[in-house]
Each structure stands twice: as structure tokens, then as C-alpha cells.
Design goal:
Layout lengths: L25 E3 L2 E2 L14 E5 L3 E7 L14 E3 L15 E7 L6 E4 L3 E10 L15 E10 L19 H7 L1 E7 L11 E4 L2 E9 L6 E11 L10 E4 L15 E2 L8 E7 L10 E12 L11 E4 L4 E4 L9 H4 L18 H13 L1 E16 L8 H39 L1
Parallel strand pairs: 11-20
Antiparallel strand pairs: 1-9, 2-9, 3-4, 4-6, 5-8, 7-8, 8-9, 10-12, 12-16, 13-14, 13-17, 15-16, 17-20, 18-19
């Protein structure tokens, strides 16, 4: 913040100078623990704060109380997380903290007009050596950084990978991923999770982008387990190596559906199976979903590849077939080790912002349990139940005996009638 803002008793919001109108406004106060006397610092400044795009810089004069006695840097900390200052020279007059807006236990408040990040500077003196007395008081300096919700916080160019910083918080709330079982014609979510061996499950992954720029969805991996824990055993890989549908290598017909209905939707089919010696006959499917900007060209990290048994080759939903060749080598990492997500900065505050954006672009979702009908297969020929056979065989025998008895009675009645007729004549 150009020129900084001087610390003063808590009087309300202090606006930045007109020359720095593009930066967020800052609220500073000076509070002491209840019941303890305190001294009010006087100009020149004793605490100065700069609220930048993704981090804050807090500078503290060691003559914190304006008495000429310097406080120890080790007695100063930032936020409930107790972040320590950067390395301080022994004769330095100023202690500097550099922290991301999310770091050090800071809190955020969302208002209709802006975002407010709150934290505090703490001074907690400790006795020197074996002494049990102190000659200074503990202090807390509340700090707030205010950011307008609409518009960048700096006049300099902001060039993130996919969306301006102003949308970082919105992305965590509006970027919702989903994974559903669909009916056979993909028109609606399936109302049943019961299958038979030989059935085909239809799965649809989707991201709801809200007010974001156009995004394209990818399924990095999918694993089937007999419990909701994706790391449990046994496990079976359905999709692996950043979008290779490896289940299609087996006797199944599993494949991605092409073309996509929309860039933010990806659909695939999976032949139903069950785990050997698992009496529960159910599975859970956990998939890792990820998005990129819609106009990013597909590559071996961002792809959706199915295996074609007739050509014995892999083919993508979009992009060149070359991007699927790594499905054979099982090494689909970029040469530089990047996954095609946000670059991670070496500076801690920028690294924190990148990680939050990256987390907002990925999600693990689970579908299940998917039930398998006991001992029933679409390919199994019908075999009568033994109880059924025994029951209805007995019934048939009884009906046959009744029919024979009735027939015998009819014959006897006819014989008697004939004899009576002959006697009368």
C-alpha cells in the first residue's frame, strides 16, 4: 500500500490514500487485554499493512509502544495460527510478516459488496532468562483487508491461469461437481442402482460452472471398491493414467461416449462386475474429476481415451489419437512433471492462492453402493428351482390321479346304464 496506513486507536474504517484507490481499504485497531493499562502509539507509524492481490505484508516497528524500548521479534506473531516473521537481523528496527490471505488462521467474511479478511497481530512478551516478571503488556492489533467483490484489486494486470482472483472465493462455492448413474438413454438419472451380471452401467460426470468461463471436464481416474473408502482392498481400476478407460482392455465393452453432450459433461459406460469371494455383491465407484479451460487443447494429461478391440488401439473423445498412446506405456505425465493445472509459485502467499484455486478445480466423488442381484446373470440360462419342481410335480400327480378316478367312475356308470337297459328289454 503506497505510503502505508499509520496505527491509531480504534476509531473505525481508515481508507487508503487517493493515490492508491485501486487497492483495498484497510481497518486497523489497537486493543489490549481487558483490565490491563496500555499506551497509545503516536505517529510516525508503528504498524503498517499492505493488502495485495493474494497476500498481506505487515511491518511492525520494534519500538511498538513508542517508548524507545524495542520488543523482541520472537514475541510477535500473526494470526491465531501463530505465524512467525521472516528472518530478522539482530539490529533491525522493523519486523516484517508476509502471509497469504488464507494463512495464519485468518477469517473471511463475505458481504454484498466485498470480501473482508480478518486477522490480528499478537505481542506476547516472555520473561528473559530465569526471571518471572515482565515489564511490558501483551497486546493485540486487529487487522482487516477489504476487497471489492467486483473488479480486480490492483491496476496492474492480473494473469492467473483460468480466472481472475476476484472469482477465487466464488469458485469454491459455485464450481460444483457431480457424478451420477444414468438411465439407458442418458435422459435422466437412474432411479435404481440394482444390476445383473451382463448389464451396462451408464455414468455421467458433470461440473456446474456457475458464472465461470467455459470449462471442460475430465475424469482423471475411477476406482471400484467394496466399501466407500477408495483406498480399501480389494480395488479395481476402471479409469487410470489421466483419462485412460483401462476397464475396456478386459472382456468388457466399457468406453467413453463420444461426442460429448457439452464440454462440461463427460459420459462413459461400464460393464457391471462384482468382486470374487465378496458376499456383499455391491461396489462403490470413486472418480477424480478435474476441469480445464474449454479452449485448452487436449493432451496426454487432459484426455478421455477408450480402447477399441477391433483395431487394438486407443482413441480419444476429442483431440489427436497421439495423446492416447501413453495409455499403453502407462506413463502419461508431462515431461516437466506438470499436470496442466495452475502453476505453483515459490512465494508462500502465491502458492497458497494457487493451491486454493487448484482445489476448487478438482474433486473426488463416489457413486454407490451399486447392488448386484444375487446369483442372477443376464447370460445365465433359466434353471427351475428344485422346490418349484417338487411342488408342482406333486400337484400334477394329484391332478392325474383325480382325472383317472373321474374317468373310471364315468366308465362304470356307463356299464351300469347299459345293463339296466338290457334287463328292461
Amino acid at each position: 500500500m503506497a505510503g502505508g496506513v499509520c496505527l491509531q486507536p480504534f476509531l473505525g474504517r481508515v481508507r487508503t490514500p487517493a493515490s492508491s484507490s485501486f487497492l483495498p481499504s484497510l481497518l486497523l485497531g489497537f486493543l489490549m487485554l481487558p483490565g490491563i493499562s496500555w499506551q497509545v502509539p503516536h505517529p510516525p507509524w508503528f504498524v503498517q499493512v499492505q493488502c495485495l492481490e493474494s497476500h498481506m505484508v505487515v511491518s511492525v516497528k520494534r519500538d511498538l509502544f513508542g517508548t524507545g524500548k524495542l520488543v523482541k521479534a520472537t514475541d510477535l506473531s500473526l494470526g491465531p495460527g501463530g505465524c512467525k516473521p521472516a528472518a530478522v537481523q539482530e539490529d533491525a528496527q522493523v519486523v516484517t510478516f508476509e502471509a497469504g490471505l488464507y494463512e495464519c488462521g485468518s477469517a473471511i467474511q463475505v458481504t454484498p459488496d466485498g470480501l473482508i479478511y480478518r486477522t490480528s497481530l499478537f505481542y506476547r512478551p516472555h520473561p528473559i532468562g530465569n526471571f518471572t516478571i515482565l515489564r511490558t503488556n501483551r497486546a493485540e492489533v486487529p487487522i482487516e483487508c477489504y476487497y471489492p467483490r467486483w473488479g480486480n484489486v490492483s491496476s496492474r494486470a492480473v494473469q492467473p491461469t483460468w480466472v481472475p482472483f476476484r472469482s477465487t472465493i466464488a469458485s469454491e462455492k459455485k464450481l460444483n461437481f457431480s457424478l451420477h448413474l444414468m438411465n439407458d438413454d442418458w435422459t435422466a438419472e437412474s432411479n435404481s442402482a440394482k444390476f445383473r451380471l451382463g448389464d451396462v452401467a451408464h455414468l455421467q460426470a458433470e461440473v456446474h460452472t456457475g458464472g465461470h468461463v467455459a470449462l471442460k471436464l475430465f475424469v482423471d481416474s475411477c476406482v471400484a471398491t467394496p466399501s466407500p473408502d477408495k483406498n480399501s482392498e480389494p480395488r479395481y481400476r476402471i479409469i487410470d493414467y489421466h483419462g485412460c478407460l483401462v476397464d475396456g482392455l478386459s472382456e468388457s465393452s466399457s468406453a467413453f461416449r463420444a461426442p460429448r453432450p457439452k464440454p462440461d459433461i463427460l459420459q462413459f459406460t461400464m460393464d457391471v462386475f462384482h468382486f470374487v469371494q465378496d458376499s456383499r455383491k455391491l461396489i462403490y465407484i470413486t472418480c477424480h474429476l478435474r476441469v480445464t479451460v474449454a479452449d485448452q487443447a487436449p493432451d496426454q494429461i487432459n484426455k478421455a481415451c477408450s480402447f477399441n478391440k477391433s483395431t487394438n488401439s486407443w482413441f480419444p473423445v476429442e483431440g489427436s489419437p497421439e495423446i492416447c498412446k501413453c495409455c499403453n506405456t502407462k506413463n502419461c505425465e508431462n515431461p516437466n512433471g506438470s499436470r496442466g493445472l495452475l502453476p505453483i509459485s515459490t512465494k508462500p502467499w502465491k502458492r497458497m492462492a494457487s493451491l486454493h484455486q487448484q482445489q476448487a478445480r478438482e474433486a473426488d466423488l463416489t457413486v454407490g453402493p451399486v447392488f448386484l442381484a444375487m446369483n442372477v446373470s443376464r447370460h445365465t440360462p433359466w434353471e427351475p428351482n428344485p422346490d418349484f419342481v417338487e411342488k408342482y410335480a406333486a400337484l400334477g400327480l394329484g391332478l392325474s390321479l383325480i382325472a383317472v378316478s373321474v374317468f373310471t367312475l364315468v366308465i362304470m356308470a356307463l356299464v351300469l346304464l347299459c345293463r339296466k337297459h338290457n334287463s328292461a328289454s
